[in-house]
Specification:
heterotrimer; A mainly alpha (about 260); B mainly alpha (about 425); C alpha+beta (about 210); A: mainly alpha; two-stranded antiparallel sheet; globular; C: about 210 residues; alpha+beta; three-stranded antiparallel beta sheet; about 30% helix
Amino acid sequence: MNRFFAALTLATILLAFPAGANEAESQLRTPQGGWPQSGIFGTYDRGALQRGFLVYKQVCAACHSMNLLSFRNLASIGYNEDEVKAIASEYTVTDGPNDEGAMFERPAMPSDRFHAPFPNEKAARAANNGAYPPDLSLIVKARLNGEDYLYSILTGYTAAPEDMKMMPGMNYNDTYPGHQIAMPSPLSGDDLVSYSDGTKATKEQMAKDVTQFLAWAAEPHMEDRKRMGARAIIFLLVMAGIFYAAKRSLWRDLH
Amino acid sequence: MAGNTTPTDFGNPVINWIDKRLPVFTMMQKEYGVFPTPRNFNYLWNFGAIAMVMLMVMIASGLVLAMHYTADTKLSFNVVERIMRDVDYGWLVRYIHMNGASMFFIAVYVHIFRGLYYGSYKQPRELLWILGVLILLLMMATAFMGYVLPWGQMSFWGATVITNLFSAIPLIGDTIVTWLWGGFSVDNPTLTRFFALHFLLPFVILGVVFLHIAALHVSGSNNPLGIEPKSDKDTVPFSPYYTVKDLFGVCVFLIIYAAFVFYAPNYMGHPDNYTPANPMVTPPHIVPEWYFLPFYAILRSFTIDIVIPFTDIIIISSKLGGVLLMFGSIAMMFILPWLDTSPVRSARFRPLYQKFFWLHLAVCITLGFMGAKPPEGIYTVISQICTFLYFAHYLIVLPLLNKYEKPLPLPPSIHEAILAQKK
Amino acid sequence: MGNPHSHGAQCSHDAPQKHGQEECPDNGHDESKRDFIFISAASMAAVGTGVVAWPFVATLGPAKDTLALSTTEIDLSPIQEGQAVTVMWRGKPVFIRRRTAQDIELARKVDGDATAFNSLRDKQKDTDRVKQSTFGGKEMPQWLVMVGVCTHLGCVPMGQKPTDMRGDFDGWFCPCHGSHYDSAGRIRKGPAPHNLAVPTYTFLSENRIRIG
């Protein structure tokens, strides 16, 4: 009985506390079919990641930086070395000082960080009506239920209810806390990008793809982690079994 | 310890040679080999060993992380992310450390409540218990400062809120807070000193753990019956009986730990800490890590200013009151051996105490839930009731039980109790 | 109770050696099974500890961003004949010297002279040391590129600046423990065991080089 209570208490602490700490936000939407990366065996869908990168590059990157990512990281979403070099060389970076002491521009290399749209926060605010477009490197981990939240924000632009007074320059979003968001609908229509793999670039598809790309960007080692976890837990289960057998055989003769 | 030991023959001449000159092997043999241990431990007695393993895991993973870390407000956030992204297995070591803190607290809280249930704090184990409470306090300080190091939003605001507790001290409070910060807000000097202390304190903990174990080996372990072993029949040698049993317990605990590290590494964390610290914007819900929540709820439950009647002079502001209550809740644990003076240790033979124990545990867990809720409406009321019940347990219930509780008859010896149970 | 394992009537795993079969009548077979369990438990624990230790050790190697930054490009056009520059590559100095015809001749004389060549501590031809100095099939032996770290104990040898001592062989001289390198960067005298190391490099044009 005591053991039962102890186990029950431990289980309560383990499960209930953090759940209590992270109260679920208002209804978030999950795309049809869910997220391929969720669950114990979930992995990233390379095709979706590449499509999502295209959406980021052609839509989000106009305002949002991704300072923690380098072009070389793209190798792990399925681009080969030459493709990574080609993507990097589309951008120029300021390097230097050179031997004359001057800064100079050169094409980006795979080791360079993603190109930031604004030189600093002040410039970003000045260009965006006073709002600061947050860095997207960790956005999925920095929001509760990050994937669903992002997908819901991206697909949550609707007309404001008639009784709602919108502040100037703000947009109505059914997911954003307070429903008034400075970011205008980034995926305002279908076919903002053209996918090379023939996938139809609907609003929902683009939102789903870019969310998966950002999920990967926030947690690039997720697949390694799950793979290693399975091995670690199987090993520990076997080890626990053997130690239990050792303990049993040792204690059995004790009267 | 070494003076009265007779040299043991270990069979190996090298070991014998060393042992004759420095009797470490004899000591290990005495304290961990043949050490007579009550034979009736249940699995709750595994958590001491589990906590020890967790301390080792935290020191090892922390050492590796410290080798990659830079304490600088401009760099720390990105340096931690560099560990997560670019350092080989850096993500693994960081998640081990992050979740390890929670698992360490789980192990220690189970260990503490086991002690409460079986009366392990009672004479002659008062100092052993007090050293344990000291370890808990040191762990809290270490965990709090460690949480500041990634310099995310929760790091920054957690540090701001907790250091501001000291401003509640009358007259000198603000001076103390400025001194703690090394400036006029939580900033670079605060971060660097927290890093230094976060590195130092685990070794202080290790030292106190050593004393904790030394004290344990003077009085011997308590056991589920709460009666002292009377003969050899009541005990078994620590090794191999409890080394093997502890290792089994450690394995099971590690499975749960691994499940968090590999499949839900951020479950016990807070998403806001993946946003870099911004001194200009406070996140809407500041919530400490789960292991501080009960204390946080107690802190916030004190909502009124106590004034001298018919004047406006405040004796205890709600701010100071909350801080006093929070420290008082830990002080209760320090003086517990003198609050509960019932000669019977184990709750098994104390029918009333047993009920109040479960109530106390429920109160602590409820306080934990309340600590995560916004401090308004019904949550404040529940927190206040639970805070009252928390203190009532120590200051009212335990002294009354000493007087009025009729304990059940104790078994004559551990050995006989086991035989009776088997029949 | 001298024997710590003989508590009560227990039959611990080493009991039979002490008590024979009377107290533990049915454990002859059990005994080997128990030993097997104990040995496998201990080996699991040992393997587990080793496996856990590995990632901790592995974190200390160069991280991916460090590896990604391991190339450096240098414009060689300002370097006159006889001059040298020192550039940083992977946190270490790299010597680039535009050798005079006399420097090359001095080094190649050793290549051609069997006795002199065999007396070298680290036998290497000058032609081999500059074999990466080509662009479009054109050999450019005037460019000598080396990691400027003495192979003895890691000091930076002198000889880059015109005013530096160049040692007895008109190359480089390490003042820490007196190692003399010749105009091909080969160790000729002193305690250093090897020639100055030649990094991997490629000429991107006739006067642009990438190291790494």
